[in-house]
Amino acid sequence: xxxxxxxxxxxxxxxxxxxxxxxxxxxxxxxxxxxxxxxxxxxxxxxxxxxxxxxxxxxxxxxxxxxxxxxxxxxxxxxxxxxxxxxxxxxxxxxxxxxxxxxxxxxxxxxxxxxxxxxxxxxxxxxxxxxxxxxxxxxxxxxxxxxxxxxxxxxxxxxxxxxxxxxxxxxxxxxxxxxxxxxxxxxxxxxxxxxxxxxxxxxxxxxx
Length: 208
Ligand SMILES: C[S@@+](CC[C@H](N)C(=O)[O-])C[C@H]1O[C@@H](n2cnc3c(N)ncnc32)[C@H](O)[C@@H]1O
What we know:
The protein contains 7 helices and 7 strands. It is of the alpha/beta class. It has a single domain, classed as Rossmann fold (3-Layer(aba) Sandwich), CATH 3.40.50.150. Strands 3-2-1-4-5-7-6 form a 7-stranded mixed sheet, sandwiched between helices. The longest helix has 17 residues, at 148-164. The protein is globular, with a radius of gyration of 16 Å. S-adenosylmethionine is lined by residues 3, 5, 44-47, 67-70, 73, 93-94, 109-111, 114.
């Protein structure tokens, strides 16, 4: 099975901290305060679940659906969380989302980078269909900066995850182009590490 993060799950956060310090957490939490208090939120591929506490600690009182393909990641999320009663955990992929349900906010943090280009296109269309017209999509990920040191780090990371998680993706896609393609434009943007990591808020062009 491709994109299987079970093996790496117990050490994922530790490794991220060794390589990136607090930056990966900082980028993923940057736009949490813009989420409306009573929103219906979907987090795809949330990993070990630390972000659940961060979201609720902003004062969030809405509903959260948390979808994770890795059994190990989802069990860590359930163990780590203090707000589990307010979370609908789904062990599965985008195809496991309840039909007809739409969300005010979708969060994809370091999630879109696991897919091959063809699958990414499909996943993004599927998710955009789940977003309310006036909803927001928060995406944090890596981006190409052209710097040699960044290219080297990205190459090493993709290689590492191809071995440990059978990563489907071969290289980093330009996510901004992909959002444009599905009719979403960037309304806010934040970067760290000289642009290597970004967090952006996207809105549907239909809502403008
Ligand atoms: C690179 S990790 C990022 C985890 C987390 N967002 C973070 O930044 O700490 C990608 C996560 O997406 C999950 N994943 C991969 N494909 C998925 C899919 N189709 N649906 C749901 N989760 C998926 C993996 O199990 C993994 O936990």
